[in-house]
């Protein structure tokens, strides 16, 4: 199905990707701090573009297949690929998923967070925890010598340790490097032990997308925004990772993944 076009990186190339990853992490940290009732998704988009360009980066998303913005801003029932707008103003109780990518010296970083706006239902905070649990379980399963489907199985299992949610099909993670989207596609579900071998040199974006209700989704007429079919709330989180011989390096986490992964799973690069 896929695997022949996987781009393998050297440790030096991973260090270049880390620069892009840290820029994405910094941008998302600033956006997280800026989220509040009354701010528009268009204003968040402007903040993201200014931050990326001021540090010598280029927004990955802007102009990608015609996408008009620097971030994807997906609110409430919007799962992914929401287009930021000055007219879309956040209100108390909303959830916003912010997906951000940056290019530095030809290498991409890609990450996403879901942020509560003001006071939200406790159940929604738990759903964010579930998506993050699934993401980190998937990252922990990304080991040299494993199989690609080990990641999706771990994501699905990690989500279920927190609660029962819809796992969106048809969208998922991907390879990343000199292009934002590369082989292989990374499912967020499935049986372990299948698909291409996981090898040192692979870089992957792992990104669970879960819903409070049905997992069925539809794409709106704008050609981008994906929403839950039953209008239930959705959560999306993502990190870009590098697989090295001695462990994993979370390229878009400021600490390289040290706060969420056991030390024995981390590459020495992540601990440096």
Can you summarize this structure?
By secondary structure, the chain is an alpha+beta fold. The protein has helices at 11-34, 41-54, 122-140, 148-160, 268-271; strands at 58-59, 71-75, 78-80, 95-104, 107-116, 166-167, 173-175, 182-186, 203-206, 209-211, 217-219, 226-228, 234-236, 239-244, 247-250.
Question: Could you characterize the architecture of this molecule?
Answer:
The termini are far apart. The chain has helices spanning 11-34, 41-54, 122-140, 148-160, 268-271; strands at residues 58-59, 71-75, 78-80, 95-104, 107-116, 166-167, 173-175, 182-186, 203-206, 209-211, 217-219, 226-228, 234-236, 239-244, 247-250. Strands 8-7-9-14-15 form a five-stranded antiparallel β-sheet. Strands 1, 2, 4 and 5 form a four-stranded antiparallel β-sheet that branches. α1 runs antiparallel to α2 (41-54) and α3 runs antiparallel to α4. With 272 residues, the protein is of the alpha+beta class. Helices cover 27% and strands 24% of the residues.
Instruction: Write the H/E string, N to C.
Output: HHEEEEEHHEEEEEEEEEEH
Residue stretches low in confidence (pLDDT < 50, at least 5 long) are none
End-to-end span in angstroms? 37 Å
Q: Which whole number gives the mean pLDDT?
A: 97
- The helix content, as a percent range, equals 25-40%
The total count of strands amounts to: 15
Give the DSSP E fraction (strand runs of 2 or more residues).
15-25%
Question: How many separate helices?
Answer: 5
Classify the secondary structure makeup into a structural class. alpha+beta
Q: Work out the radius of gyration.
A: 17 Å
Largest sheet: 5 strands, antiparallel
- The shape is globular
Q: Going across the major beta sheet, what is the strand order?
A: 8-7-9-14-15
């Amino acid at each position: 199905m896929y695997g022949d076009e996987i781009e393998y990186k050297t440790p030096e190339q991973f260090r270049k990707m880390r620069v892009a990853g840290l820029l994405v992490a910094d941008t998302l940290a600033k956006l997280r701090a800026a989220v509040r009732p009354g701010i528009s998704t268009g204003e968040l988009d402007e903040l993201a573009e200014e931050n990326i360009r001021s540090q010598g980066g280029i927004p990955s998303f802007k102009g990608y297949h015609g996408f008009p913005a620097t971030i994807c801003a997906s609110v409430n029932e919007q799962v992914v690929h929401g287009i930021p707008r000055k007219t879309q103003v956040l209100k108390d109780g909303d959830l916003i998923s912010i997906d951000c990518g940056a290019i530095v010296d030809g290498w991409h970083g890609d990450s996403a967070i879901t942020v509560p706006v003001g006071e939200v239902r406790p159940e929604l905070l738990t759903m964010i925890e579930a998506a993050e649990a699934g993401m980190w379980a998937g990252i922990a399963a990304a080991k040299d010598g494993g199989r690609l489907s080990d990641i999706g199985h771990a994501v699905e299992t990690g989500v279920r340790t927190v609660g029962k949610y819809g796992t969106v099909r048809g969208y998922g993670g991907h390879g990343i490097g000199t292009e934002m989207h590369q082989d292989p596609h990374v499912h967020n579900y499935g049986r372990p032990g299948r698909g291409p071998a996981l090898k040192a040199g692979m870089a992957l974006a792992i990104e669970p997308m879960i819903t409070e209700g049905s997992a069925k989704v539809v794409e709106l007429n704008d050609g981008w925004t994906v929403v839950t079919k039953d209008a239930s709330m959705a959560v999306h989180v993502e990190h870009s990772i590098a697989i090295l011989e001695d462990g994993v390096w979370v390229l878009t986490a400021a600490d390289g993944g040290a706060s969420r992964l056991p030390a024995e799973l981390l590459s020495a690069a992540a601990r440096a």
